[in-house]
Design a protein that fits this description.
InterPro entries: Diverse_substr_monoxygenases, Luciferase-like_dom, Luciferase-like_sf, NTA_MOA. By secondary structure, the protein is of the alpha/beta class. The protein contains 15 helices and 13 strands.
Length: 446
């Protein structure tokens, strides 16, 4: 048995669910995604269920790669609505007490000073629960919205390294005890403990100091999802939590080993980041009920919508491939987007359909069975999760929703009690910052 405990993260979206195509049409899904109550209720449910954290993914463009138009995506609701995440997390923080709160922000289209100030503010107002999901952004549509050239993969990570140097440096421009508010002496803050950053680099210049005192966590928790060779090096240097995609337990073990090797190469051996694969769980009181739920969800799926989503993730226009012709053998190498996700999906496609798999096969598979799905009764689901955890394929999981908030309600009702009974999940701690409760390195310290 491992001495540590599973980290359980709820994967949310500031729109209808897109981790199960068509799930927004499920009669149990809350349709009010433009209302504050949707997010307040979601945060409360995730906390009540026993998750450690809720985080939201993001994109800065409507999907426009498929057919070189956004029209099909708008008609189906495929990632066309994405609300501002820090506004939402500020709202949720006022209605929850314990869960970590994660927002996705890009190192390609924002400035470090803005990001440093935004997450420092969230960390203070949430009493030490802010999490930054770091992305480098992955498609041409986003670049066009910001009026900038689309950057090559490794160049985006070079920029991201400097971006993190500036953000973390700004978080430390205030020493921990600089903020005094001492009415007896009239000292608001100690000027000897507030410092310039004076960063002058290849991509950024920032003098500092930050206009927000050092966050309660020192550094808000850093989440990252890169799985390319360059992305893994970036995660080894910066990430506290690493969101990964794995086709199954064996590939999960391989990713786990490779990431720990990367940690060792940068000297992070005492308390490296936690590795969390994405899984979708469909659970019911019996296996038959769970499979009936899954069959209904699959009936809502549209294969073309799956191809719209994959086009956005990959940078490839899948409408240009004949539906009934085999996909090119080198399809993965053609992607300009998320190489790890595309590689995982194509690997599973070829395993299921063979080397002659077509675009139609891809759409049908993506609509119902891409990624890791765990389906069954509470004991069966817990067996599978524990096999990954005990087998050193992960340190916990990112649970992707289908219907919302029903998927998280079911996981909290059926699975988390079973995981507690097996001793791999504790009752949620309530004291300290989110970083403290996960036992993560403090990281900060001028």
């Amino acid at each position: 048995m491992r001495d540590d405990k599973m980290v359980l993260v709820a994967f949310g979206q500031a729109t209808v669910s897109q981790t199960q195509n068509g799930a927004w049409m499920h009669p149990g899904s809350d349709p009010n995604v433009l209302q504050p109550e949707y997010y307040i209720n979601l945060g409360r449910e995730v906390e009540r269920a026993g998750f450690d954290m809720l985080f939201f993914d993001d994109r800065w463009a409507m999907p426009g790669t498929y057919g070189r138009s956004f029209r099909d995506a708008v008609r189906r609701g495929t990632r066309v609505v994405k609300l501002d995440l820090l506004t939402i997390l500020g709202l949720i923080s006022a209605h929850t007490e314990r869960i970590g709160l994660g927002a996705t922000y890009s190192t390609t289209y924002f400035h470090p000073f803005h990001v440093a100030r935004a997450f420092a503010t969230l960390d203070h107002l949430s009493k030490g629960r802010a999490v930054w999901n770091i992305v480098t952004s992955l498609n041409q549509d986003e670049a066009e919205n910001f009026g900038t050239p689309f950057m090559e993969h490794d160049s985006r990570y070079d920029r991201a390294d400097e971006f993190l140097e500036v953000v973390t440096g700004l978080w430390e421009t205030w020493e921990r005890d600089a903020f005094r508010l001492d009415r007896s002496t009239g000292v608001f803050a100690d000027p000897d403990k507030v410092h310039y950053l004076d960063h002058k680099g290849a991509a950024f210049v920032s003098r500092g100091p930050l206009t927000v005192p050092q966050p309660p966590q020192g550094w808000p928790v850093l989440l990252q999802a890169g799985q390319s060779g360059r992305g893994r090096k970036f995660a080894a240097r910066w990430a506290d939590l690493i969101f990964v995609v794995a086709a199954g337990i064996e590939s999960g073990q391989k990713v786990y080993r490779e990431q720990h090797t990367a940690f060792e190469e940068v000297g992070r051996t005492a308390a490296p980041g936690r590795i969390l694969p994405a899984v979708q769980v469909v659970v019911g009181p019996t296996e038959a009920i769970a499979r009936e739920k899954k069959a209904y969800l699959d009936s809502l799926s549209d294969p073309e919508e799956a191809l719209i989503l994959l086009s956005e993730l990959s940078g490839l226009d899948f409408s240009s491939y004949d539906l009934d012709e085999p996909l090119p053998a080198d399809i993965v190498s053609r992607t300009t987007g998320s190489q790890a996700i595309v590689s995982s999906i194509i690997g599973k496609l070829r395993a299921n359909y063979g080397e002659s798999a077509t675009t139609r096969d891809l759409g049908e598979m993506m609509g119902s069975q891409s990624g890791v799905h765990i389906i069954g009764n509470p004991q069966q689901v817990a067996d599978e999760l524990c096999a990954w955890f005990e087998g050193r394929a992960c340190d916990g999981f990112v649970i992707q929703q289908a219907d919302t908030p029903g998927s998280f309600e079911d996981f909290g009702r059926y699975v988390i009690p079973e995981l507690r009974r097996r001793g791999v999940v504790d009752e949620p701690p309530t004291r300290g910052t989110f970083r403290d409760r996960l036992g993560l390195d403090a990281r900060a310290g001028r």
